Amino acid sequence: MAKTKLLLITGVSSGFGRALAQVALATGHRVVGTLRDAGAVAAFEALAPGRAFGRVLDVTDFDAIAPMVDAVDATVGPIDVLVNNAGYGHEGVLEESPLAEMRQQFDVNVFGAVAMMRAVLPHMRARRAGHIINITSMGGFITLPGIAYYCGSKFALEGISEALGLEVRHLGIHVTAVAPGSFRTDWAGRSMVRTPRAIADYDSVFDPVRARRQAVSGQQLGDPAKAALAMLQLIDSDAPPAHLLLGSDALALVRTKLEALAEGFTQWEALTRSTDG
Question: Could you count the other beta carbons within 10 Å of the beta carbon of residue 186?
Fold first, then answer.
């Protein structure tokens, strides 16, 4: 059996965070899970008494993050794996969506994740070991109308993950951005924040996308439990990738995007090169 590890997972009340925590505990690992609801801590810890540890945390409470991480390291043990899972989706046409909603989207999906990384890095750096997994999305590679703020946040986290990986790999720390496709989580249900529609000019572009998303909610191809198993394989690897897609839909869509990018670069290559001095 692979070495037992301590995982710190943000947002374990539902979705990927819950699935990963359950599978990790079932396979013998220890898990510290963060939850925003203090009333949910006991139920989480009951999943595996003595190996499941609940901590109340809102990842936008940036000042609370480092003290929590330091306390976990001191009382539960060294954190082997940080999984930045806490996040949500914002749906809304850009022109209709207030900047305050973009700020909140980035506070949770980007700034909260970065604050968590900055908190664990001193401990991992001192031990010359550790693995940071950032749950992004295929929306960090491809886009759809109506989720500009969400895609922006996931594009940002993909780039930050990759750059951090280059900074810390010589210190024995791995960083992987895990980009799921469509999974049977509640991302498109109660976990999604929606800006009210107001401008009819966008109906023809936006409405079919929303209708499709709502139609497949709960019937997506991806199984969260299988995603959890894949992530456990990832943390057992001595040479994990900087980027990992989860789901055949993500693989197909991202490959198509990369091919289109390459074609566009070739089509406009002469103009690109024309700026050289």
Answer: 13
